Amino acid sequence: MKWLVYIAFIAISLAAPLVFPAYTQQFSALWVLIILAMTWDMQGGQMGYNSLGNIFFFGFGMYVSAVVQVSIAHDIGEYTYAGGINVFQFTDGQYFTGLVLGVAAAGILCALLAFPLGWILFGLRGPYFAIGTLGVAIAAGEMVGTWEWVGAGQGISMPPFPGNPDTAKFVLYIMNMITGMVCFAVIAWLYSTRFGLALNAIRDDEQKAEGMGLQTLWIKRVCWAVAAFFVGICGAIYGNTVGFIEPLEVAFQTIYLGIFMVVAVLLGGKGTLWGPVVGAIVFHTLKEVTWTHFLGWQWVALGVLIVVIVVYFQEGIMGWLQRQRPEWFGIRVESREPEAEAAT
Amino acid sequence: MNVVNGHAVIEIDKVTKTFGGVVANKDISLKVQEGAITGMIGPNGSGKTTLFNSIVGFHPIDTGSIKFEGNEISKLRVQEIARLGLLRTFQQTRIYGKMNCVQNMLISIPHRKAGLLDIFADHRAEDRERAEHLLEFVGLYEKRWLMGGDLSFGQQKLLEFAMALMNEPSVLMLDEPTAGINPTLINGLIDRLKRANEEFGITLFVIEHNMRVIMNLAEHIYCLAHGELLAEGTPGQIQNDQRVIDAYLGAH
Ligand SMILES: Nc1ncnc2c1ncn2[C@@H]1O[C@H](COP(=O)(O)OP(=O)(O)OP(=O)(O)O)[C@@H](O)[C@H]1O
Ligand SMILES: [Mg+2]
Fold first, then answer.
1. Which end of chain A is more exposed for a tag (fewer CB within 10 A), N or C?
2. What is the mean pLDDT of residues B152-170?
3. pTM of the model
4. Measured from the CB, is residue B21 less than 6 Å from ligand 1?
C-alpha cells in the first residue's frame, strides 16, 4: 500500500510535464512549494520552532548560485555593471558546469550558514524566534539590494539555458522533482530515527529534553541545516527557472513564498509527513485559481483562507485524516490492542 | 545504616541561592550517600526544589560548591550534568505530551553514552524491549500507545519515573514522587522506588511531603526550613527532633 502510493506519486510526477507541457513551469513552482513546506514543517511542525525567515535560505541560495554561475565565465562585478546577458555570453560547458556547481554551492553554503545563525537565533523562543528569523530574511533582502557587486536592486540576469526554452523548463522541472523527492526521502528517514523523536521532544518540552541529556542545540541546528540545504538548492533552481533575479520580489520574497510555505503546512497538517506535500498541492491549486479568477482580490482570498484555517481547521487535512483513520498511519489505540481486549 | 562510612556521591557545600531579595537556599551543606535512599523534607517554600534545580544546573548558584562523584558540577550546563548520570524528575511532572508512552520512553535512552551522530541511529529492538518492560514495571503497559498528555496526572508521574529509569542514571532525584498519586497506589510506588534502588542500583534523593512515605523509604533525611538546613538524621531522629516538629510536623 505504502509503496503503491510512492510509485504512483513518482509516476504522476514524471508524467505531468510530458502530458501537460504547457504547465511545466507551474509544476516546477509546485515542487518549490512542496520542498519549502516540507522543510518548514520539519522545524515548525515537528520541532515547534515556527520560523518566518526560512525564505532567507531561498534567496541566499539563489544569489550563491548566480554568483557561481556567472563567475565561472566572467567577472561578476563587470557582468552586473554592464547589464549581464545583453553583453556577456556563456558556452554550453560554462553553463552546465556553472549550473551544477552553483546549485551544489547553494545547498552546502546554506547548510553551513545555518549553524552560526542557529547558534544566535535558537536562543529565542516562540514569537521571538519567528520575528528574529523574519528579521534576518528582511535584512538580507535590504542588504543585497544595496550591494552593487551583485547588481543591487537591479538584480542579476541568469546565464540563459543553451537551447530550446521548452527543454530548459523540462530540465529544471526534473531538477526540482529530484530535489523534492530526495528531500522527502531524507526527511522521512530522519523521522524514523531517534532524531525524529528528539524533534518532537523539543517541541513538547525543550527543558525536559535538556534535563534528560539531549543535545538540544545540536539537534536544532542540524534540523535547520537540513532545511537550509534543500531550501538553498531550491532557491538556486528557482533563480534559473525565472531567469532574472532581484532581492525583494524574487529572492528574499518574505510576503510571497515566505508566507505561502507556512499556509501550505497549516492547510495540509502540521507535524505530519505527508501534510506539507498535500497542503502544498491543494494550496498551489487554490492559489492559481484565485490568482486567475479573482485578480485584484487574490490577497483578500488568501487572507480569508488563512483565517479559516487558523480558526476552524487547525489540524489540517492530514491531521483530520489521522483522527478519522488512525490505523492508516500505524497509530495504535488502547482498545485495538489484542492483549488489552483479552484482558477485559 | 552506616552513613558515616558510606561514600558520598553528591556533596553540597555552603550553597546559597537568592532570587532578588528572596533567599531560597542559605549556606546549605549536605551529602547524598552512594547506593542509599536519602530524603529531603521541609514546609512549602523552604527551598527544596530550588536546591534540586541548583544541583542539576537549572540555574547558577550564588556561592558554594556542588560536587558529583568528586567533580565540581556547579558550572556545568543542564545537559552535561544529565549526561554524567545525574537526573531529576519535576515537581510539576514533565513528560512529552504529544508523543505516546513508548515514544516518551524511546527518546529517554541514556544520551550520555551517545556521540553526536548517534542521534541518527534507528531505535534498537533492545531499547523497545526495555521501554515496554519499564512501562510494565510502573504499571502503564496497557496505556503504552496513549499520548503522554492524555494520561491522568498520576499516570504521568509514573511515566516520568519510568522515563527516568530508562535513562539509567546513577543518581535519580525525585521531586515529590507520590504527590497526586492515589493513596492505594502509593505503597506500590514505594515498593518500586525501593526496587529501583536495590535492583537497578540507583541512588535516590527524594523530596517528599508525605511523612509516612519518606519515613518508610529513606535511610537518612534532611529537613529544610526557610531556606536553611534545620536538621538531619535517621527517620527516627527526625521524627523526634523538636525543631522539625515545631517547623514542620507541628504545623500540620
Ligand atoms: N525562579 C524563581 N524566581 C523567584 N523566586 C523563586 C524561584 N524559584 C523559587 N523561588 C522562591 O524560592 C523559595 C523556595 O521555593 P522552592 O520551590 O524551592 O520551595 P519548595 O521547598 O520546593 O516548596 P514546595 O514544597 O511548595 O514545593 C520560595 O519562596 C519561592 O517563591
Ligand atoms: Mg518544591
1. N
2. 94
3. 0.91
4. no
